[in-house]
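Intended use. Records like the one below are meant for learning the mapping from a protein sequence to its folded structure. Do not use them to infer anything beyond what is encoded.
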Amino acid sequence: MSILFAVTTGLMFGLGVFQMLRRDLVKAAMGFYIVFTAVNLFMLSAGVFDGQVPAYTDQAANGQPSDPVVQSLILTAVVIGFGSYALLLGMINVAANRFKSVDSHEVDQLKG
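Structure written out for the chain above:
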């Protein structure tokens, strides 16, 4: 099960990076969110208690408590990711309204 979880997380990360490199700003934003979800899944899978029990199991199943630090970090990361994703979509909306395009190569006046 952990091999399947690792492969799925790696595929999500690769798909997200591929989407972030696209010209379309909306697809790049979706790629950002996919990468962020893959990083959260990686943190969940890496946060093991005693090296034997995953962080998402409960105490009744195996007698060992799960690690609450990993769960609280992921919850915090989800909230921060949602806020940054909303800000990113807002900036894409402003750029699309101003330049009448969501293609990043046509938006050339964003230089500081």
